[in-house]
Design brief:
The protein is of the alpha+beta class and about 200 residues long. Helix content is about 35%, strand content about 25%. It is built from 8 helices and 7 strands, in the order βββαααααααββαββ. The strands form 3 sheets. The chain has a 3-stranded antiparallel sheet with strand order 1-2-3, with no helix packed on it. It has a two-stranded antiparallel ribbon with strand order 4-5. A two-stranded antiparallel ribbon has the order 6-7.
């Protein structure tokens, strides 16, 4: 590479200029033959990986679209990629099918894949006091649940009464169906103990 008064980093045409170990480097961008990529045997693993990523991305879109009524305008920047990552791991944990034919539903039978959704942060920091943890916490009695008071009446919640709606969120990844069904609505008062 020739010397210059300034160092250029970026792309010009099909040449890319960058630094590698503090030394200027230039490389030509190679072209991929798409027909070869679709049919050649040496790209078989690549095609399987692309399939899995595509299934996880489609599943992630379906998952997010079904929750839009709750999440629109409140999500953190990594929400979309976090959902895809969880679904990709779930897909890869499907032991019933060979690579390239795995299904998210089969992978979600794995307990680790299910628990990954519990750790998913969806809402932005400004909403954390209200949304961060689960709304309900299980008590020692397996049939009783206690409302999480810290969330319901956290910082920024005004008034002494709040309505809480609880429901089920069902996603059928193979059938491309995502819906939320409200099951219960509770009026909660500040400083009131509620169990059900």
């Amino acid at each position: 590479m020739g010397t210059s008064l300034f160092e250029f980093v970026g792309r010009v045409g099909n040449m890319v200029y960058y630094k590698l170990d503090n030394k200027p480097v230039k490389r030509r961008i190679g072209k991929v033959d798409l027909e070869k990529m679709r049919t050649a045997p040496q790209y078989e693993e690549t095609r399987k990986n692309q399939y899995e990523l595509g299934v996880a991305a489609s599943g992630g879109k379906l998952f997010r679209e079904g929750l839009l009524q709750f999440t629109k305008g409140f999500t953190i920047h990594s929400y979309a990629s976090d959902v895809v990552s969880i679904l990709l791991n779930a897909l890869r944990s499907d032991t019933t099918q060979p690579k390239g034919q795995k299904q998210i539903t089969n992978g979600l039978r794995n307990i680790a894949s299910q628990l990954a959704f519990n750790k998913l942060d969806i809402f932005s920091k400004r909403e954390t006091s209200f949304y961060k943890n689960t709304l309900l916490r299980k008590t020692n009695d397996g049939m009783a649940w206690r409302l999480n008071r810290n969330i319901l009446f956290g910082k920024g919640v005004k008034g002494d009464q709040m309505s809480v709606k609880i429901g089920y969120y069902h996603v059928d990844f193979e059938g491309s169906i995502a819906n939320y069904k409200e099951v219960l609505s509770i009026a909660c008062h500040r400083n009131e103990m509620i169990e059900f």
